[in-house]
């Protein structure tokens, strides 16, 4: 007989185990609602007396009379006695005085009322009799449970409310906990005071002189454009888990906080605010006043961000807080620019940039969102009253000189033909060989367009094989212009109108209005050849929703990235930097191998001024700023620039003018890992903590930020800035859309922590910084019809993929009640005088204690392994599964009989269970702490501590759990798995029946080991392979050696069961179609890792097998599920839920 089987039989008794297995509709006993007070003599409910319990555990005879001074533990038996009295004859009091004579109507109403009262009383008495009968038939533990539930409200009323209220704690001091735990978990109460105490105690600070191994994370600095959103909460949760885990594991853990000035983004929101509140533009108030407005905004929202980070529990080292425009970081930016310029890596030139005609500045690639259009699409563009047409390929002809005919070209941007300076053909295209070196004539200005040969840009099989070239307005055309020494003609003004280069006929027209006029003009000349739908990609500014225009502006500052990009490539190839997940390494290689020089100058007012001064000599004829690139002096300050100017122009008078442009925000951000540690100074932090350990960030900024940090770190810091890059998914809304302020789907994490009414969500949107046409209240009303319930910080850690459904988040918050109640149960059973052991001896423990410690050991190993591999969802799943399904659902339920019965024979088991429970809870809380810091600290502080041990003052600086070799017991776990799987399978069959009475259950065992484990269950009829399988049974396959049967005759509706299975089959078919569609998608076999493809193929095969099995009959006459073929069918279907979840995750 296996140990788990013996243990369950000993603990629960034959009757109770039968109730657990056969009568699975009976609920398991709940944990006691309230524990005893400190001065109560006992912590357990009074056990059933021998007079009340039959040998089988049944209630018999009347309960004893209640004590004249009943204690709280006696409430169960007082209640039983009251139920017993309800069946006794009614005792009448003294005769009442005759009542006043009633009129007929009043008498009729009173009679009806009395009749209803009588019916109600009869109904009540009938219910009482039924309840009493049920009590006679239930095990003693079920009686305790039902009566305790009935009187739960009364028990709460009898408690002293002040015992459950935490005292006010002075700021920064350790939280003063209430004597007793509250009945339910309350996030706002639990999370109060702990953070201030952690911070004031110095637990967040790292020591640069420490001999511990360093573990360093630099938090991606959130933009000061506004409050944090739910995506930032994911970043904070992941990074805080890493830091807390490493801190508990003995590392000198440093997590550096910071805020980014976010040049363009912040300027845009402040401009909107000015226009909305004061109806002013930035140009009307001037640069200095505008910068003052931005600084006010920074002070307001910088404080908001810091408050949010505190509420999220982020264990950041606030003594090292940084702002990208503070003095230290500004010095680093200037130093970097000057050094790179001296090394020849920064230069000034006329090159193509991404230009935003609304912001009137060049923008970086990260500000450009690319959308793919499949056909003609009308889009709303800022500054245009009506939508603009895109996704159309327009063909037109250029007349050839000397009357040689015409050459047809096509474009999706017809307005750029005003800037065409050539037509390219393939050198081997026979159709145009006779035109090589000849010219076409521009129909509107007479400009000659040379017909050039270029094999790189022209595909002779596409379209007409001739390509118009506008070098100043297309990246590919720009390179053609460079290769062929073409003229670069910009035809747009800064605000997107046609300039004088476009000709008097179109000058001053908005670019998309000019499209229509150009087409009409071409038609008038007979050169228009038609239009058709086409696939195209549009670049749209994420800040303004304007179409980004590639064009050449006045000279800009550029960083030559070629050399630094090669170093960044080698760093990943040599594994000096590890990218997690590794599939993004190919994207890294592809982007850096095709990198272009980086334009770092921006034409706006908020940011780091370019540290360059233009020298204007007194006798210069040309006074235009920047007209001569050789006159620029790059220096750390104006005084330093003056010294350099005197050397270059000795004896001449000059004026210095600093470049009005500012640097790209990503330039200062690229220096962040260096700058926050004190670079360019040789600081102790820089020597101790650089390079950092890991960068955790979103995939969307892999290139614009991560790659540039690697380039800058290796060039200026002499080493890579971090050793690992962990890329988390992007948080989307319920509908799979990226959260964006302009969509109105952004959620403030504090709205999830504190809760928010629907009215509050709408008001926050309406009072925000959105344009009226950006508000999306209708979607908000649909997504959050009841607002957001209070969830607390812990709710973020259950939502891993990341289409955020707030209802699921609220559901996960409820799990904290499970933790809360587990500790409340333990506090009641451990007792106020309990002193935990320093160590526990496993050898003399009951099997259930050995099993739970072995399971805890396995969960610990899985958690640590997953954390080391940056598989955070696996780590949280391992912890959650142990707490939920092993500790709470099995162990705590199994040991309750030890505490509900006081015979001396249980004393040793009771002591062992008490010690094991404490070890499990204390270790489990430490295991969980990195993910749920607030509630674990609160519960850990409630647990008693060993008298003769040096326990830390806080859980966050306690040692993280590690494997304990003597706890591992694989054989016991395997046997226990069989027992639990058997119980679960029978329960799953039981839930399919329509009746609640007990039914015979059978176990077909195919091996001696399984038989030895199962045969002790008196409620199961053991069968061997030689026995005939029973008819009219449902079957569930536990494993290859064990199947269970449950008698179903008369308990199941066969037609209804067939309908259920038909619906399940439809679900499997949909999943199979989704996996097939995913595997057939273009690029799947080239891009998906081999391991993913193999996993998808296994799922595809399993689903196909499910469908094949589903086509076979389920019921045959009276022999339900009798044949082996149908046994396999049901066994496969019992795994349907698991397979479906795995497949859905893969498809997602």
TrEMBL record:
Residues 100-138 form a coiled coil. One of its GO terms (cellular component) is cytosol. Keywords: Aminoacyl-tRNA synthetase, ATP-binding, Coiled coil, Cytoplasm, Ligase, Nucleotide-binding, Protein biosynthesis. Residues 1-71 are annotated as: Disordered. Residues 850-999 form the Methionyl/Valyl/Leucyl/Isoleucyl-tRNA synthetase anticodon-binding domain. Its main location: cytoplasm. The keyword Ligase applies. GO terms for biological process: post-embryonic development; reproductive structure development; valyl-tRNA aminoacylation. Residues 194-757 form the Aminoacyl-tRNA synthetase class Ia domain. It is an enzyme of class 6 (ligase). Gene3D superfamilies: HUPs, Isoleucyl-tRNA Synthetase, Domain 1, Valyl-tRNA synthetase, C-terminal domain, Valyl/Leucyl/Isoleucyl-tRNA synthetase, editing domain. The keyword Zinc does not apply. It is found in: Cytoplasm; Mitochondrion. CDD domains: Anticodon_Ia_Val, ValRS_core. It catalyses: tRNA(Val) + L-valine + ATP = L-valyl-tRNA(Val) + AMP + diphosphate. GO terms for molecular function: aminoacyl-tRNA deacylase activity; ATP binding; valine-tRNA ligase activity. Its EC number is 6.1.1.9. Pfam families: Anticodon_1 (PF08264), tRNA-synt_1 (PF00133). Belongs to the class-I aminoacyl-tRNA synthetase family. This is Valine--tRNA ligase, mitochondrial. It comes from Oryza glumipatula.
């Amino acid at each position: 007989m296996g140990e788990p089987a013996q243990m369950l039989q000993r603990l629960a008794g034959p009757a109770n185990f039968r109730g657990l297995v056969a009568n699975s509709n009976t609920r398991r006993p709940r944990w006691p609602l309230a524990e005893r007070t400190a001065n109560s003599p006992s912590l357990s409910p009074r056990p059933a007396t021998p007079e009340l319990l039959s040998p089988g555990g049944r209630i018999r005879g009347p309960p004893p009379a209640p004590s004249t001074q009943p204690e709280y533990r006696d409430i169960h038996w007082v209640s039983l006695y009251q139920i017993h009295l309800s069946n006794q004859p009614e005792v009448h009091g003294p005769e009442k005085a005759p009542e006043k004579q009633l009129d007929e109507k009043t008498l009729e109403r009173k009679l009806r009322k009395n009749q209803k009262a009588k019916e109600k009383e009869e109904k009540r008495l009938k219910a009482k009799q039924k309840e009493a009968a049920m009590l006679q038939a239930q095990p003693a533990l079920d009686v305790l449970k039902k009566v305790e539930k009935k009187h739960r409200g009364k028990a709460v009323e009898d408690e002293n409310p002040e015992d459950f209220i935490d005292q006010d704690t002075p700021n920064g001091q350790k939280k003063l906990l209430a004597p007793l735990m509250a009945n339910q978990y309350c996030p706002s109460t639990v999370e109060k005071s702990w953070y201030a105490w952690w911070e004031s105690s110095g637990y967040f600070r790292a020591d640069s002189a420490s001999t511990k191994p360093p573990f360093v994370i630099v938090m991606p600095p959130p933009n000061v454009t506004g409050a944090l959103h739910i995506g930032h909460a994911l970043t904070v949760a992941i990074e805080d888990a890493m830091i807390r885990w490493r801190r508990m594991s003995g590392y000198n853990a440093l997590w550096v906080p910071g805020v980014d000035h976010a040049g363009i983004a912040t300027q845009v929101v402040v401009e909107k605010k000015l226009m909305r509140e004061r109806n002013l533009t930035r140009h009307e108030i001037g640069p200095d006043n505008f910068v003052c407005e931005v600084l006010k905004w920074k002070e307001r929202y910088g404080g908001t961000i810091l408050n949010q980070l505190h509420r999220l529990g982020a264990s950041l080292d606030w003594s090292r807080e940084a702002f990208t425009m503070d003095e230290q970081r500004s010095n680093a930016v200037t130093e970097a620019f000057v050094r790179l310029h001296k090394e020849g890596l920064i230069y000034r030139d006329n090159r193509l940039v991404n230009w935003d005609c609304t912001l009137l500045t060049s923008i970086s690639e990260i500000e450009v969102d690319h959308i793919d259009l499949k056909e003609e699409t009308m889009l709303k563009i800022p500054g245009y009253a009506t939508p603009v047409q895109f996704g159309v390929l327009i063909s037109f002809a250029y007349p050839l000189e000397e009357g040689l005919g015409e050459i047809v070209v096509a474009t999706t941007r017809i307005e750029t033909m005003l800037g065409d300076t050539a037509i390219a053909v393939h050198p081997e295209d026979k159709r145009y060989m006779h035109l090589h070196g000849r010219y076409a004539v521009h129909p509107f200005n007479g400009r000659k367009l040379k017909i050039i040969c270029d094999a790189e840009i022209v595909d002779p099989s596409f379209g007409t094989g001739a390509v118009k070239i506008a070098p100043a307005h297309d990246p590919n055309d720009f390179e053609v212009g460079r290769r062929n020494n073409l003229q670069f003609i910009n035809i747009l003004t800064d605000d997107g109108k046609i300039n004088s280069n476009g000709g008097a006929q179109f000058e001053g027209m908005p670019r998309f209005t000019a499209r229509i006029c150009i087409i009409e003009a071409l038609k008038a000349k007979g050169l228009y050849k038609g239009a058709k739908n086409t696939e195209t990609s549009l670049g749209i500014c994420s800040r303004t929703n304007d179409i980004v225009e590639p064009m050449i502006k006045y000279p800009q500052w550029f960083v030559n990235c070629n050399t630094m990009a090669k170093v960044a490539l080698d760093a990943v190839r040599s594994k000096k930097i590890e990218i997690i997940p590794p599939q993004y390494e190919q994207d890294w290689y592809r982007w850096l191998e095709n990198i272009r020089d980086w334009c770092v100058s921006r034409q706006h007012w908020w940011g780091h001024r370019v540290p360059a001064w233009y020298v204007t000599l007194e006798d210069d004829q040309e006074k235009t700023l920047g007209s001569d690139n050789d006159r620029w002096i790059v220096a750390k300050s104006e005084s330093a620039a003056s010294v350099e100017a005197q050397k270059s122009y000795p004896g001449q008078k000059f004026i210095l003018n600093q470049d009005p442009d500012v640097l790209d925000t990503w330039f200062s951000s690229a220096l962040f890992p260096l700058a926050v540690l004190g670079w360019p100074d040789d600081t102790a932090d820089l020597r101790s903590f650089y390079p950092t350990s890991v960068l955790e960030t979103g995939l969307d900024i892999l290139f614009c930020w991560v790659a540039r940090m690697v380039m800058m770190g290796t060039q200026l810091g002499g080493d890579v800035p971090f050793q690992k890059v962990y890329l988390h998914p992007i948080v989307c809304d319920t509908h799979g859309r990226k959260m964006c302020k302009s969509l109105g789907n952004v959620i403030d994490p504090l709205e999830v922590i504190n809760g928010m009414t629907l009215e509050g969500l709408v008001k926050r949107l309406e009072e925000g910084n959105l344009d009226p046409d950006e508000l999306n209240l209708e979607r908000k009303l649909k997504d959050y019809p009841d607002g957001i319930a209070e969830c607390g910080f812990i709710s973020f850690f259950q939502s891993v993929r990341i289409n955020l459904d707030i209802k699921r988040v609220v559901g996960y918050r409820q799990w904290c009640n499970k933790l809360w109640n587990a500790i409340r149960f333990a506090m009641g059973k451990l007792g106020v005088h309990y002193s935990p052991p320093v160590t526990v001896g496993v050898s003399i423990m009951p099997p259930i204690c050995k099993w739970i410690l072995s399971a805890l050991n396995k969960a610990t190993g899985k958690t640590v392994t997953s954390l080391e591999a940056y598989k955070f969802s696996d780590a949280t799943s391992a912890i959650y599964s142990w707490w939920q399904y092993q500790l709470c659902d099995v162990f705590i339920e199994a040991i309750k009989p030890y505490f509900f019965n006081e015979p001396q024979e249980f004393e040793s088991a009771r002591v062992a269970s008490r010690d094991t429970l404490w070890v499990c809870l204390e270790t489990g809380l430490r295991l969980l702490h990195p993910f749920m810091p607030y509630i674990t600290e609160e519960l850990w502080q409630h647990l008693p501590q060993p008298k003769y041990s040096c326990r830390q003052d806080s859980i966050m600086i306690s040692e993280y759990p590690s494997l304990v070799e003597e706890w591992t017991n694989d054989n016991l776990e395997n046997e226990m798995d069989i027992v639990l799987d058997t119980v679960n399978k029978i329960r799953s069959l039981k839930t399919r029946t329509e009746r609640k009475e007990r039914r015979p259950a059978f176990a077909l065992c195919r091996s001696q080991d399984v038989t030895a484990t199962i045969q002790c269950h008196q409620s199961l009829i053991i069968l061997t392979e030689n026995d005939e399988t029973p008819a009219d049974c449902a079957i569930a396959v536990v494993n290859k050696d064990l199947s269970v049967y449950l008698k179903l005759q008369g308990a199941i509706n066969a037609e209804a069961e067939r309908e259920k299975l038909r619906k399940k089959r439809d679900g499997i078919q949909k999943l199979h179609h989704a996996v097939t569609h995913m595997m057939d998608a273009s690029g799947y076999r080239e891009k998906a890792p081999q391991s993913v493809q193999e996993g998808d193929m296994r799922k595809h095969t399993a689903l196909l097998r499910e469908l094949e099995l589903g086509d076979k009959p389920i019921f045959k006459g009276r022999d339900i599920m009798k044949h082996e073929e149908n046994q396999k069918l049901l066994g496969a279907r019992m795994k349907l839920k698991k397979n479906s979840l795995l497949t859905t995750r893969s498809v997602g």
